[in-house]
Specification:
By secondary structure, the protein is an alpha+beta fold. It is 44% helix and 15% strand. The chain has two domains: 36 residues; 85 residues, no CATH class.
């Protein structure tokens, strides 16, 4: 589903860029190849027992990990899963850097956390 949507969006973007110039086409290509990631696509997957598995992280550009909401240590579990699948655990698991956190992305996550938890003062 993600790849079909990604492909359709790429066709739409490139169709709009006809005659726009090389620089805009390169920016669109870079966004499609590096900046977009299927995390949370779909956001949750229902199980037969009625519980939901929520998107946790991308292990590679094509493998997403979904964990139950009651998982006590999701980062630790993702690390063990990556190790079990013999994936790199350097913090940039995806070959295209999709799992790497830039300073801007980290700052955005921190700001979102503080807004969702207004009682946090540090």
């Amino acid at each position: 589903l993600w790849l079909a949507t990604w492909s359709a969006m790429g066709k739409e973007w490139t169709g709009r860029l006809v005659g726009e110039g090389k620089r805009r086409a390169i920016a669109a290509r870079d966004s499609l190849q590096g900046a977009l990631s299927p995390l949370g696509f779909p956001f949750v997957v229902p199980r037969q027992d009625g519980r939901l598995m929520a998107a946790a992280d991308n292990l590679t550009p094509y493998w997403g990990a979904y964990l139950p909401s009651e998982t006590a240590d999701p980062r630790g579990l993702l690390g063990r899963l990556s190790a079990g699948l013999n994936l790199s655990t350097s913090g940039t698991r995806a070959a295209n850097g999709a799992s790497a956190l830039s300073g801007t992305a980290l700052a955005d996550r921190m700001e979102r956390y503080v807004r969702l938890h207004p009682y946090v003062r540090t």
